[in-house]
Structures are given as C-alpha cells and as structure tokens.
C-alpha cells in the first residue's frame, strides 16, 4: 500500500512535468482534502497508508487538474485570509493577492458602527474576512449579479459560522448599486470587479480561461468598464469621508486614478498587493 510520502512525491513530479503552478502547494492541498489530513501530517505522518480507493480518487483528480480543471473546483474549497471558502464552477476562485484588499480595508475602516458593502462579491470571501476581523455589530452587505456565484456566497454563509458573524451578513443579487435604496450609506465599499480586457483574456492560463466564469473576469473598455460604473456611483452610497477600495489590473493604475478623480473621489492612491504589484486603488468620498 502506498504511503502519503509516495503519493505526494508522485503528484509533485507529475505537476512539475506539466508546468502546473505551485506543484507542491497544489499537491498538498489536494491530498489534505481527499485524505482529510492537516498540514502537520505531511511532516509527522509521511508514512500514512493510502488505500486503493483513495489512490484511485487522487489519480482521477490529478488527471483532471493536469487537463486544466482548477484544483479548488476539484476539492470544493480554497483558503482565503485564513478562512476556508467553498468554491465550484461558476464562481471566481479567491486569490491570495486579493487578501491585500482586506488588509487595506481594515486599515482604513475607522467607524465600528459603519456598514460595509462588497460589490461583485462572488464567493463572499472579502466580506467574510472583514466580518471575522471586525465587530459583531458591523453590518456587511454583498452584491453579486451572477445566479451561480451568489449561491456559492450563500453556501459559505451557511457553512461555518466560527469564522465570522453570519447574522450581520446579507447577500443581494443584482447589478452593482442597483438593488440599493439611495439612502443606504456605507463606511466602506470594496470590490474585486471584472477587469480583464478581451486581449488579456486570450493570454490567460488555460485553467482560468476555460474553467472560471468569464462574467467575473472580462470587462469592456480595456477592462475598465465595471470600475468606471462603480466609481460613478460610489460617492452616492459612501458616508462622508468613507472609502472605496477596488482591485485592478497591474497596468491599469494611471487610468483608474483618472477615473476616480473624474467622479469626485479624493485622496486617490494606487497601492501594491502582497506580491508588490500595483493592483489596488483607493479613493475617499468628498466632504
């Protein structure tokens, strides 16, 4: 019977040979989910026996991942800001780079009683991370246009409440600000909107281009259309001196700043994500 170390080594070798990104991390994640092991088991129990049934399932998942299917869809979850987030076909997979949006939001959030809005919420990962870090009294609202994606957000809301305060989180299906009354005001608005241009989309990795939802990736006007729509209405829904924080493409900084300035946001700034790339823009509501 093969051991955990045997199987792990075989998967890493195969992932390397097929140029899979982060082969060691993906191999460990796959095995930990299928075998229900903790990270420490890969060090302390590398002689853990793997049954034939488990081996067959592992090999099936490995073959599917080599053919492009995201490892997160195969296992049904991923990690984001030290929280397990459920994901599957039809919802964007949270990226580690987006965790920087949460960090910045926590730095800028000053009012414990102020509500938070997350646009293009997808799986709800940003909102869940913020809820966990902030007070139980913080009202959090997520808006998502996709039928499928919002179902994943609701699955996450009902999955495990130890990470956040589910009673203070609500999700609404709709297009950006459209479902909200004009008198709704938020201390903080976050968004990871679609920002990939059609040209950039053609150059995306196969596993992203062919499996993740295009609705969550593509935007017109060189990837800026959704960002423009958000910036246009943001001041109407922000509290005085409230903040808007959006993830953007690393080549969009100059255009994004012009957009925020045009729509009246002040103290606009481009910030780097946790890989050092200029991927986040912030702006504050006018007085």
Can you describe this structure?
This protein is of the alpha/beta class and 287 residues long. Helix content is 41%, strand content 18%. The chain has 13 helices and nine strands. It has helices at 4-17, 23-35, 41-44, 52-66, 71-75, 99-108, 125-133, 147-159, 198-202, 206-209, 220-223, 225-237, 253-262, and strands at 77-80, 83-86, 116-119, 140-144, 169-173, 186-191, 238-247, 266-272, 278-284. A seven-stranded mixed β-sheet has the order 5-4-3-6-7-9-8, sandwiched between helices. β4 (140-144), α8 and β5 form a beta-alpha-beta unit. α1 packs across α2 (23-35) and α2 packs antiparallel against α4. It is globular. The mean pLDDT is 91.
Key traits:
13 helices; alpha/beta; 287 residues; 7-stranded mixed sheet; 9 strands
Task: List the SSEs and their pairings.
Layout: H1 4-17, H2 23-35, H3 41-44, H4 52-66, H5 71-75, E1 77-80, E2 83-86, H6 99-108, E3 116-119, H7 125-133, E4 140-144, H8 147-159, E5 169-173, E6 186-191, H9 198-202, H10 206-209, H11 220-223, H12 225-237, E7 238-247, H13 253-262, E8 266-272, E9 278-284
Parallel strand pairs: 3-4, 3-6, 4-5, 6-7
Antiparallel strand pairs: 1-2, 7-9, 8-9
Helix pairs in contact: 1-2, 2-4, 6-7
User: What is the string of SSEs from the N terminus onward?
Assistant: HHHHHEEHEHEHEEHHHHEHEE
The profile of the biggest β sheet is: 7 strands, mixed
Strand ordering within the main sheet: 5-4-3-6-7-9-8
Strand content: 15-25%
Oligomeric form: single chain
Shape summary: globular
Give Rg in angstroms: 20 Å
Helical amount among residues, as a percent range? 40-55%
């Amino acid at each position: 019977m093969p051991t955990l170390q045997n199987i792990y080594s075989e998967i890493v070798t195969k992932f390397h040979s097929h140029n899979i990104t982060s082969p060691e991390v993906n191999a460990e994640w796959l095995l930990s989910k299928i075998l229900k092991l903790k990270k420490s088991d890969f060090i302390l129990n590398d002689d853990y026996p793997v049954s034939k049934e488990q081996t067959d399932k592992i090999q099936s998942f490995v073959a599917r991942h080599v053919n492009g299917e995201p490892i997160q869809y195969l296992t049904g979850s991923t990690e984001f800001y030290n929280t397990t987030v459920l994901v599957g076909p039809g919802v964007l997979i949270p990226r580690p780079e987006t965790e920087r949006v949460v960090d910045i939001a926590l730095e800028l959030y000053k009012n414990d009683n102020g509500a938070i809005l997350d646009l293009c919420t997808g799986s709800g990962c940003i909102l869940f991370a913020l809820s966990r870090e902030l007070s139980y009294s913080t009202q959090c609202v997520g808006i998502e246009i996709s039928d499928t994606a919002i179902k994943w957000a609701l699955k996450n809301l009902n999955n495990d409440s130890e990470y956040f305060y589910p009673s203070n989180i609500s999700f609404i299906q709709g297009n950006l600000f459209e479902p909200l009354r004009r008198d709704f005001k938020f201390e903080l608005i976050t968004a990871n909107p679609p920002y990939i241009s059609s040209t950039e989309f053609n150059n995306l990795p196969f596993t992203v281009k062919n499996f993740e939802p295009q609705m969550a990736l593509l935007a017109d006007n060189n990837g800026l259309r959704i960002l423009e729509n958000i910036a246009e209405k943001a001041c109407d829904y922000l509290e005085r001196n409230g903040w808007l924080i959006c993830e953007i493409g690393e080549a969009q900084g100059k255009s994004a700043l012009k957009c925020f300035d045009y729509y009246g946001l002040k103290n606009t700034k481009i910030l780097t994500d946790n890989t050092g790339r200029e991927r986040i823009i912030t702006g504050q509501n006018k007085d």
